[in-house]
Every structure is written in structure tokens, then in C-alpha cells.
Amino acid sequence: VFHSGAGAAQDTGRTYFQQQFDRMRKAYAKRKVFRTSYNELARLSDRALKDLGIPRSGIKARAMEAAYGN
Predict the structure, then answer these.
(1) Half-sphere exposure of residue 49, counting CA atoms within 13 Å on the CB side?
(2) What pLDDT was estimated at residue 13?
(3) What is the DSSP letter of 10?
(4) pLDDT at residue number 9
(5) Which of 5, 42, 63, 64 could bridge 37 with an S-S bond, Cβ 3.0-4.6 Å?
(6) CB pairs under 8 A, 24+ apart, for 58-66?
(7) What averages of pLDDT result for each successive group of 10 residues across the chain (70 residues)?
(8) Cα separation of 33 and 69, whole Å?
(9) What's residue 8's pLDDT?
(10) Cβ atoms within 10 A of the Cβ of 33, count?
(11) Which contiguous run of DSSP H or E holds residue 33?
């Protein structure tokens, strides 16, 4: 039997609000990974970044990749 709308969400045992809360929790966790990665890389010296092959202008992109996989 196929259900749509709110019934489908209840069939899986999760309400719409629980699903939204889970989505927000996951987004928060990814944002935390981004902030942590960004701050750790930003604290490194130019020499340390060069040894890692990361230009200072590439810190944001590397942090985004760590958090969101892009």
C-alpha cells in the first residue's frame, strides 16, 4: 500500500518535525566540522600551509570540502 504526505512520514516512524530536527542537527554538525577545519587551518603559519600544499586563499575551500564533501 502506498501512502503519501504525513501518512508516509508516520509509516517510517518519524514525524515531519522529527525529520526536520534531524536535518537541522546534521546541518549543525557539518557546520561545526567546517568551523573547526577552517579555524585549525587559519591558525597555521604560511610555511606549514605551504608544506601541506594549501595556499592561504584555499583554506575556505578545504574546510568546505572537509565538511560538505564538495
Answers:
(1) 17
(2) 73
(3) H
(4) 46
(5) 63
(6) 62/37, 63/34, 63/35, 63/37, 63/38, 64/34, 66/33, 66/34, 66/37
(7) 51 83 97 98 98 97 94
(8) 11
(9) 53
(10) 14
(11) helix 16-43
